[in-house]
C-alpha cells in the first residue's frame, strides 16, 4: 500500500500528478521544471501528427515519460525491452539557445526530416536505420509515447529523450497508405480527430516504476496521485483551512491519513465502471461497506488529468455548503457536497480508485471508493 509519508517517488516530476502538484505548495524549481515539460508535451504532439498518412493519434503516456525521466540520470532504472527509447539523445542548450520550446521543436524537425533520406512511396514505407527517428514518430503501430529532458549535473547539458510503446523491426511497414483523402479516417469505427484515428489506449503497464498491483488498472503515478491529493486535502481540513460557504470548516481532530488499497478496493472500483452506462453514472451503487465518488470528462482528457479533475471537483464542493460546528452530514451536505463528504470521513483509512477510457462513448470516467 502507498502510505502518506513513505512514497519514495513523492517529488519526482510526472505528468500524471503534475496538475495536482501545481495546486499544492512545492519547491519553485520543481514547478519551473514541470511547466517546461508540459510545454514540450504540447510541441511534440503537434509535430508528431504532421502526416496525413499516420494511422493513429499517439497518446501521451505519463508512465513512459516518468520512466524516461528516471532513466536519463539513473541507468539502473531500465526502459522495458518492449519499448523503444530514441538512441539519438538531443542535447538542449549546448548551442546557447535557452528557449526550450524552440530547441525541442528544432530537434523534432530534424528527426522528422529523416524521411527525405529514403523513398517511402507505395510499399516502400518500411522501417530502417536510415529513418529510425522518423519511423518511430510516424508509424501507426505506436499508440503511446512520451518525451522528457533532464541534465543530471551541472557539468552535462540537458538531454531530450522520447520513448515509444512499440519497438519496430527492420522492414516493418510504417503505416497503411491511401490514395483518396476521404479514406484517411477509414474504417467506420475510427473516431477521427484531425485526420487521425482515436483509439482507446491502455497505459504501458511495463513502464517503471511499476504500479502496486494491476487489479485497479491504475499506474503507479495515478495511485500515488490519488493518495497524495486526498491526504493533502484532509490535512487542509485538519488545520482549519478548508473554506466553506461561511468562512472555514471546523478543524478535524485525529483525521487519519489514507492508504492506497488496489488489490481489494481498487479492483472493485474498476469493476463498477461500465462504459456502456456512462450517461447514467448516478445509478452506480457503491460496493457494500464502501462509499463511492465518481466523475467524467471528455474522452479527449487523459486518464491522469481526469483523476486530478475528479478529486479537485469533489473537494471544491465544500465551498458551497456551511459545515456546522459538529461537522455533521446535514441535508445541505447531502444535496450539495455529496462527493466531498466521503473524502473527509474520519472512519476512512483506505482508498482505491480506477479510471477508464470510454472513448467509444466519448468520455473518460474516474471513480474512488473509501472503506467506510
TrEMBL record:
Identify the Pfam families for this entry: CAP
SMART domains per the UniProt record, alphabetical:
SCP (SM00198)
Q: Cross-referenced InterPro entries, in alphabetical order?
A: CAP_dom, CAP_sf
Q: Give start and end of each SCP domain.
A: 221-371
Full protein name: SCP-like protein
Which species is this UniProt entry from? Ancylostoma ceylanicum
The organism's taxonomy opens as: Eukaryota, Metazoa, Ecdysozoa, Nematoda, Chromadorea
Amino acid at each position: 500500500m502507498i502510505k502518506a509519508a513513505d512514497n519514495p517517488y513523492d517529488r519526482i516530476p510526472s505528468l500524471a500528478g503534475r496538475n495536482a502538484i501545481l495546486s499544492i505548495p512545492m519547491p519553485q524549481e520543481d514547478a519551473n521544471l514541470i511547466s517546461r515539460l508540459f510545454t514540450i508535451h504540447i510541441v511534440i504532439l503537434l509535430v508528431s501528427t504532421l502526416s496525413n498518412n499516420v494511422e493513429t493519434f499517439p497518446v501521451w503516456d505519463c508512465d513512459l515519460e516518468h520512466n524516461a525521466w528516471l532513466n536519463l540520470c539513473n541507468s539502473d532504472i531500465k526502459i522495458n525491452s518492449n519499448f523503444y527509447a530514441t538512441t539519438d539523445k538531443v542535447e538542449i542548450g549546448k548551442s546557447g539557445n535557452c528557449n526550450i520550446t524552440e530547441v525541442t521543436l528544432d530537434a523534432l524537425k530534424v528527426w522528422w526530416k529523416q524521411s527525405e533520406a529514403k523513398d517511402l512511396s507505395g510499399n516502400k514505407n518500411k522501417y530502417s536505420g536510415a529513418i529510425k527517428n522518423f519511423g518511430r514518430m510516424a508509424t501507426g503501430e505506436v499508440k503511446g509515447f512520451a518525451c522528457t529532458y533532464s541534465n543530471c549535473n551541472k557539468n552535462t547539458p540537458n538531454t531530450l529523450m522520447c520513448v515509444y510503446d512499440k519497438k519496430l523491426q527492420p522492414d516493418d511497414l510504417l503505416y497503411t497508405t491511401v490514395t483518396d483523402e476521404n479514406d484517411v479516417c477509414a474504417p467506420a469505427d475510427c473516431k477521427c480527430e484531425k485526420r487521425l484515428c482515436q483509439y482507446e489506449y491502455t497505459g504501458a503497464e511495463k513502464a517503471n516504476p511499476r504500479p502496486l498491483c494491476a487489479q485497479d488498472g491504475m499506474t503507479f503515478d495515478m495511485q500515488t496521485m490519488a493518495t497524495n491529493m486526498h491526504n493533502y486535502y484532509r490535512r487542509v481540513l485538519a488545520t482549519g483551512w478548508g473554506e466553506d460557504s461561511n468562512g472555514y470548516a471546523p478543524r478535524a481532530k485525529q483525521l487519519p491519513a489514507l492508504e492506497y488499497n488496489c488489490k481489494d478496493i481498487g479492483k472493485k472500483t474498476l469493476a463498477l465502471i461500465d462504459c456502456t452506462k456512462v450517461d447514467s453514472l448516478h445509478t452506480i451503487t457503491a460496493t457494500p461497506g464502501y462509499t463511492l465518488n465518481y466523475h467524467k470528462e471528455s474522452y479527449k482528457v487523459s486518464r491522469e488529468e481526469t483523476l486530478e479533475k475528479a478529486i479537485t471537483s469533489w473537494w471544491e464542493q465544500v465551498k458551497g455548503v456551511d459545515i456546522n460546528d459538529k461537522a455533521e452530514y446535514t441535508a445541505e451536505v447531502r444535496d450539495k457536497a455529496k462527493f466531498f463528504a466521503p473524502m473527509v470521513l474520519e472512519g476512512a483509512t483506505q482508498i482505491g480508485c480506477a479510471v477508464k477510457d470510454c472513448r467509444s462513448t466519448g468520455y473518460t470516467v474516474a471513480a474512488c471508493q473509501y472503506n467506510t
